[in-house]
Amino acid sequence: MVELSLEQAFMRADFHIERGEVSEARKFYQAILSAVPNNERAQQALTALQEEQSPADTQSPPQEVITQLLNLYNSGNLEAVVEQASLLTEQYPEAFVVWNILGAANKGLGDLDKASQAFKKVTKLNPSLADGFNNLGTVLKDQGKLNSAINAFKKAVTFNPNSAEAHNNMGSTFQEQGKLKKAIEAYSKALKLKPSYTTAYYNMGNTLQEQEHFKEAIEAYKTALSIEPSYAEAYTNMGNALERLGRLEEAIEAFNNTIFLKPDHVDAFYNMGNALQRLGKLQEAEEAYINALSLKPNYAEAYYSMGNTLIGQGRLE
Fold this sequence. Notes:
There is one protein chain. By secondary structure, the protein is mainly alpha-helical. About 80% of the residues lie in helices and about 0% in strands. The radius of gyration is 25 Å and the shape is elongated.
């Protein structure tokens, strides 16, 4: 199939449609989209096949039922969603929308195996649905199946090149693999598509920091914070980058912003203690470590750092 020209591939697809071999025709359209992701003719043909195969009155529940299920999901009652969606999949086994909701609910409950099974069912029932592959990829990533996750995200952006979320998710998976250059490229694509995507800026900052490009990382965090000023984690990681550059007062300010937004942020207290210790403000550093330990009594690093602070104060006992 790879050696066929586009026109030959379309002719083969038409041949299978005439014979009623829809699944075979779909394979040719998908191959075309893999080679030319924006081919409108193939996209429209896949959509038409899906519509022909999935009449709403026989293969999907009424829209009001879907709406009720979504409302239940949005309310956070995930156990009830799983129960109701499971019953619906028995009645409407080819309703990929229901399988998608079932997968999301299982993922939210931490049952990754069942979530993966549901999302695989989605991609089988609707092989051109980008969201199905994106959702499957996120579960595979959580399961540590990083190569499989990348393949899922690649399919998602093949069917929807404008999916900023899929590009971002692919970037975070590349980052976890240590492929930092590819991660940056994926985040850049996500941000080109969605310039206000705070999570992509944050992830970009983390990747730049791993590469020790601290100034560029700080700019990424600042952009995220300009869009979402309550992004506590962005303040924390920006503080870490500032500390690495020796800009300790600014780092402490960033950690304070984190604590203001999230008073139980253990790492912000610990990191602030380290910055204060480097500034020679030993009593303030000790207080920061005590706050960290009050939140996390088994924080070994905080005990160790507080010990060094006490040595600096001459309190050897």
